[in-house]
Each structure stands twice: as structure tokens, then as C-alpha cells.
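RECORD TYPE: inverse folding
INPUT: C-alpha cells
STRUCTURE:
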């Protein structure tokens, strides 16, 4: 019996035709079941305060340069000792990022050899990877903006402090040209659809407003520069940092739930009757700056971090929600952090090994990982302001089946055999006699190492089978359970 079918993060009951809610935690969906999710491995020294934005750039020689922002500072990672160097303009401080009366984050973009950092309360900042020692104001009088992206060969700013219903782009291959009509630089105001909340870049752009989504396509030689067309009516972006560009696909969270946009397509719902209603009830809507998305470039998964209503007040999210777009399955991860992103690990030489650790055995990251360092992967800043990758020991995993049983007959459960290569695990079953009753959790039993069974005894009408694999256990898959169930003897 498989533990779970499609959709599994505390899904809406109607998705399963009245079946009880099914749960998984800290596992990654696979075609044959589920696999473990690793804990965080520390990579850098801590930032002085909470991370409010981060980005990696590639120099022309392939070197990875990592930037991060706090509420008042911008930093560059030292690739030798993995500490953070203050690269704020003039060594000063910035006003904390906010937009439209809400807390916000820094956003970054790379255009050639230049890295741009933006937030609505400061002038667009620029850093030349070949020569800069600190960020500086971008020339050409660009507007102050909350969001930034690259569309084709244009730098596009949105969430403008001066006009929240406008986007503005620089000249063609000219990031210091911001005068309308000069070298294809221009702007576009939108008469409806609400505030512009961001633009997903690429060869064409997807413009997200509160209640509209539009596509912008470059038209070479045309006086209009970009052809802009509406692709949705009364559907927009709910959380500005929930936009994820994963290869050719775009994922985001609208007021109607989680969506994706295929190349050249229109938004399609991916979370309806799976996670949407449960997620919305769990989301802390007063801290949308902590609701952010990132793609894992090494897999077919995207992740959204968010602060739940039960999360501690502060600068950290307390949950991750993953989605495998190949398998079309959601899964939750229990972790806390400040900022989620895809990032490349910097290279490593023998000379700077001592700066990381005085002992090879004490290294938190395997040296094997540096061979593919330029390939980005999912990472986060932890609640202690430290950047790390998910390469540590396996987190504790919980996997629970859909509810089994019948309305007319009672059953006796004598145990079950988990289909997994985990040598250590605990099994339990829930019970209830009516659909209106609250399920009662059973006592956990350790798997029998000789038989591979979880032996127990439970008489009930409805039951779920639960497997819990402790943290740091070595395992690769869990595909389901083989139950040992017989009809109960009549009274």
C-alpha cells in the first residue's frame, strides 16, 4: 500500500473525495516514494544582523562573487576566509527597505560585469566586479525601485517609489541611460491592475501587478520598444518575493493560490485542492517579506519559505514548502531561516583551507562539493545569519498514509512492514470509530530488526499508518507499507 498519492502537504480534504488529511514532513518526493531531506551545513561566517537579500554573480573568469544585504548594509563574501566585507556606499548605512507601507528586501541583478542592488528607499546601487571596492549610486538618474530584473538586454525597474503603477527600463545595453526616448530607454504606466509587484526577467518579461499579469516582449526597431499585453484578468501577485524563475518556467503565489506559467503560456493553478487553502490559513499575512521563493537548479524542485501564524515574531521564517514540478507533488520541510536562495559555492584552494577549518575531519562541507562549486544549488541564511547549503545529516522524517477502513466493519491491525531501506524507524497507527471523531494517535514501536515489521495491536474502524525515521538516520527511500490487517471478530 503506498503511503501517499499526489498532493500530500496537509491537503484540502476535498482533494481526496472525503479521505482524511495525509501528512509528510522533511522528505522529498520521488517516483517510487520518498527520500530524505538533509539539514543545513554551515558555509560562511555570520552576517552582523539578519539577511534581507542575497545574490551570487559570476565574473568573466568564472569566479563566484556572493553579495548579501541587511536592513542597513551591503556585504561581499570574502572567498578566502568566508567572512563578510562591508561594501556599502561610502561605508555608510542605508534606510531599511520598505515598499507600499510594508517591510521589504533588497533585490539584486547582474548585467554583464555589473551587479545592481535595489530597494525603494535608496538610489539604485551598482558594483563593478572588475574594479569596485564598494557599491555606488548608478549614474543616469534611475528611479528608486523595490524590484529589479533583466529582460533581454534591458535592466527593468518596478515598484517605483515615484509611481507604483509604472515600470521603467534603461537604454539598450546601456544601464546608465534612463532618459525616456534615448537609446530605447522608456517607461510604461498601467491604468489598471494595481501596484506593480515585480517583473520576472528572461528573453521576455512577465509583469506582475496586484490584479493583473502582463507579458512584455521586445520589438526591435519599433518605436514602442516593448509590446505589452495582458494575460490575466483579476489575477495578480499576492506576495512579491514568491516569484520563482526555474529555467523556462515561472512559479508564483496569487490570491487564488500557487500557479505556474509555461513558456508563452498563461498561469495554471498547481495548488488547488492540494495545498492552497491550508497554506493560506497558515501564512502570516503581516510578514510577506518572509514569504520568498527559490529554485533548486540541480533538481526539478522549487521552494517557498514563509512565516506561519504560529512562528515566533522576528526576522525569520519557520517553514518551507517544496514543489516538484515534474512529479506535481508538494511537500513541507521544517526549518527556520532568514533568506532562501539558489547560490553557487565559491572555489577553494589548498592555501585557504586553514581559514575554513584547522582539521579536515571537522569540515562542515565535504571537499567533494567544491569540484562542482560553480553549479548553483538551494541554500539559505539561517536564523543565526549564516549562509549554508542543505548538505548535512538527514532531518527527522514523518510519513503517514491516507486513512484506511470501512464504514460497516471494524478491523484489527496487527502491525505493518515499512517498505524502506532505513534500518532504524518507529511505526504507529491512529484510530477512530466515526468520521466525526478526532483520530487518536497510537503508541510508537521500534521496527523489528529481524523481521522488518512494526508489531502492534489495534482494533478500530478507521486508521492511518505512520512511519517516523529519526534524524541522522542513513536511508534513501520509503515507498509505502505492507499492512497486516484482519476483520475484527463480531461481538
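DESIGNED SEQUENCE:
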Amino acid at each position: 500500500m503506498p503511503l501517499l498519492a499526489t498532493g500530500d502537504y496537509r491537503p484540502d480534504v476535498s482533494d481526496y473525495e472525503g479521505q482524511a488529511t495525509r501528512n509528510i514532513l522533511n522528505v522529498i518526493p520521488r517516483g517510487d516514494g520518498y527520500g530524505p531531506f538533509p539539514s543545513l551545513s554551515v558555509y560562511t561566517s555570520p552576517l552582523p544582523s539578519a539577511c534581507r537579500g542575497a545574490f551570487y554573480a559570476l565574473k568573466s573568469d568564472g569566479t563566484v562573487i556572493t553579495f548579501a544585504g541587511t536592513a542597513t548594509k551591503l556585504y561581499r563574501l570574502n572567498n578566502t576566509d568566508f567572512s563578510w566585507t562591508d561594501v556599502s556606499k561610502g561605508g555608510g548605512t542605508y534606510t531599511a527597505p520598505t515598499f507600499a507601507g510594508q517591510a521589504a528586501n533588497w533585490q539584486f541583478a547582474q548585467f554583464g560585469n555589473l551587479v545592481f542592488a535595489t530597494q525603494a528607499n535608496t538610489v539604485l546601487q551598482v558594483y563593478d566586479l572588475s574594479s569596485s571596492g564598494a557599491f555606488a549610486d548608478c549614474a543616469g538618474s534611475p528611479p528608486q525601485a523595490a524590484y529589479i530584473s533583466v529582460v533581454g538586454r534591458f535592466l527593468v525597474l518596478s515598484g517605483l517609489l515615484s509611481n507604483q503603477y509604472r515600470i521603467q527600463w534603461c537604454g539598450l545595453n546601456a544601464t546608465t541611460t534612463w532618459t525616456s526616448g534615448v537609446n530605447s530607454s522608456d517607461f510604461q504606466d498601467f491604468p489598471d491592475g494595481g501596484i506593480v509587484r515585480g517583473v520576472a526577467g528572461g528573453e521576455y518579461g512577465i509583469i506582475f501587478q496586484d490584479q493583473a499579469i502582463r507579458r512584455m516582449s521586445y520589438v526591435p526597431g519599433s518605436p514602442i520598444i516593448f509590446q505589452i499585453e495582458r494575460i490575466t484578468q483579476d489575477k495578480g501577485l499576492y506576495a512579491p518575493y514568491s516569484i520563482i524563475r526555474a529555467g523556462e518556467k515561472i512559479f508564483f503565489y496569487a490570491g487564488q493560490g500557487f500557479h505556474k506559467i509555461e513558456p508563452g503560456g498563461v498561469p495554471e493553478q498547481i495548488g488547488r485542492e492540494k495545498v492552497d487553502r491550508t497554506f493560506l490559513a497558515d501564512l502570516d499575512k503581516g510578514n510577506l517579506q518572509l514569504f520568498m521563493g527559490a529554485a533548486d537548479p540541480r533538481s526539478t524542485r522549487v521552494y517557498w519559505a514563509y512565516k506561519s501564524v504560529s512562528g515566533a515574531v522576528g526576522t525569520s521564517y519557520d517553514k518551507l514548502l517544496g514543489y516538484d514540478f515534474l512529479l506535481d507533488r508538494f511537500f513541507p520541510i521544517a526549518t527556520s531561516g532568514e533568506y532562501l536562495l539558489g547560490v553557487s559555492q565559491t572555489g577553494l584552494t589548498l592555501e585557504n583551507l586553514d581559514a575554513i577549518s584547522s582539521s579536515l575531519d571537522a569540515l562542515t562541507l565535504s571537499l567533494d562539493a567544491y569540484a562542482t562549486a560553480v553549479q548553483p544549488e538551494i541554500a539559505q541564511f539561517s536564523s543565526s545569519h549564516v549562509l549554508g547549503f542543505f548538505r548535512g545529516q538527514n532531518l527527522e522524517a514523518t510519513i503517514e498514509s491516507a486513512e484506511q477502513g470501512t464504514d460497516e466493519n471494524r478491523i484489527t491491525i496487527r502491525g505493518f512492514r515499512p517498505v524502506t531501506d532505513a534500518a532504524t524507524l518507529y511505526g504507529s497507527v491512529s484510530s477512530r470509530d466515526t468520521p466525526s471523531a478526532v483520530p487518536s494517535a497510537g503508541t510508537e514501536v521500534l521496527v523489528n530488526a529481524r523481521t522488518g515489521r512494526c508489531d502492534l495491536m489495534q482494533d478500530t474502524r478507521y486508521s492511518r499508518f505512520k512511519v517516523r525515521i529519526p534524524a541522522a538516520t542513513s536511508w534513501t527511500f520509503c515507498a509505502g507499507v505492507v499492512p497486516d490487517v484482519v476483520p475484527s471478530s463480531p461481538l
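NOTES: The two ends are 29 Å apart (CA to CA).
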